[in-house]
Specification:
Layout (H helix, E strand, L loop, with lengths): L3 H27 L1 H34 L3 H25 L4 H26 L1 H28 L4 H13 L1 H13 L4 H28 L4 H20 L2
Helix pairs in contact: 1-2, 1-4, 1-5, 1-6, 1-7, 2-5, 2-8, 2-9, 3-4, 3-8, 4-5, 4-6, 4-7, 4-8, 5-6
The protein binds zinc ion.
């Protein structure tokens, strides 16, 4: 059942996502080296939470609501994989428009982040919380990455800050608010499919987007941060029982 508090949590989490994203942008603007270093730990921690939450909580719940949720999960995963490939291909095709293509990719991604808050919280506060913590933490890295990508696209620092905020930070609460009226009206079986699709998206995000980004670095503390994220998810799951 969807209550007012569900909506309140969605607003709180999606606005926090926006704030943490903006913090990432500001930190990398002020102190690039420090922000880049912290970013890797945040990515690993987020990856730990975001691989655990679909595997131990969201996906099992989705299958319980709808036995076809596995197909939805596969579709979510494939959609992320191929939309990313398409954006990368377009980027290669039009080298001059690097900034713009990167912005479109990040914009779509952050918009989908917002939809995830609305779907997960509509299923249960617990699942929303778990996915939400991982997502909010990964926003810091996203702010850092967006700003750095925009500078590569020959934008001035001031313009890069504004564009990064509009495209990476603001799109998340917008996505959440647009998705909420739909997500909150879905019946249980359709909500199961939506949660399945979100599980596929989260598995993609952590396993083939966040983790590979830090695996090259091979820092010991990165794996600790990853395990810390996994432990938090396990702690929350067993803590609720
Ligand atoms: Zn994101």
């Amino acid at each position: 059942m969807v209550t007012f508090s569900t909506f309140t949590w969605i607003v709180i989490f999606s606005l926090s996502a926006m704030r943490v994203n903006s913090l990432g942008i500001l930190f990398v603007y002020r102190n690039k080296e420090w922000a880049e270093r912290v970013k890797d730990h945040f990515i690993c921690f987020a990856a730990g939470v975001l691989i655990s939450s679909p595997l131990i909580m969201a996906f099992p719940q989705a299958v319980e609501k709808n036995p076809n949720a596995g197909l939805a999960a596969l579709s979510g995963f494939m959609f992320m994989l191929f939309s990313n490939k398409l954006i990368k291909y377009k980027m290669k095709q039009a080298e001059l428009a690097f900034g713009i293509t990167a912005l479109i990719g990040i914009g779509i991604h952050s918009f989908i982040d917002g939809i995830i808050y609305s779907v997960t919280f509509s299923v249960s506060i617990m699942i929303g919380f778990l996915a939400g913590i991982g997502l909010v933490v990964h926003e810091f890295a996203e702010g850092v990455i967006t700003f750095t990508a925009l500078l590569k696209g020959d934008l001035s620092k001031k313009k890069a800050i504004i564009y990064a905020f509009l495209v990476a930070a603001l799109t998340t609460p917008v996505g959440a608010l647009i998705a909420y009226p739909f997500a909150s009206r879905l019946n249980d079986s359709v909500l199961g499919l939506a949660l399945g699709a979100v599980s596929g998206v989260l598995i993609y995000l952590s396993a083939s987007h966040l983790l590979p980004a830090v695996q090259e670095e091979e820092k010991r503390h990165s794996y600790l941060a990853f395990l810390f994220g996994v432990s938090l998810a396990l702690f929350m799951m067993f803590g609720k029982q």
